[in-house]
From TrEMBL:
Organism: Hymenobacter caeli
Residues passing through the membrane, by range: 7-29, 41-64
Domain of life: Bacteria
Full protein name: Uncharacterized protein
Key words, A-Z: Membrane, Transmembrane, Transmembrane helix
Length: 75
């Protein structure tokens, strides 16, 4: 797989996960506000942060692949 193909797959996937994780963080906060038992909103919040951080990691990998692509394309 080329650096360009990796970049074009990692970056959008990262953005998707970042958006999903941010939405999940809000959802977990609303569970806490509704006084759901602590283990439930803590588990939801932990899962939300895992998804959000995975998105940041994927997006970062996309940036790395973009830089490698540009470095290899220059004469």
């Amino acid at each position: 797989m080329t650096h360009k193909a990796k970049w074009l797959s990692f970056a959008p996937a990262g953005l998707l996960f970042i958006g999903a994780g941010a939405s999940m963080v809000h959802w977990a906060g609303s569970l806490k506000d509704r006084r759901v038992p602590a283990p439930q909103w803590l588990a939801a919040g932990t899962a939300a942060l895992v998804v959000l951080n995975a998105g940041v990691s994927l997006f970062g990998r996309g940036v790395v692949e973009k830089v490698l692509h540009e470095a290899r394309e220059k004469p």
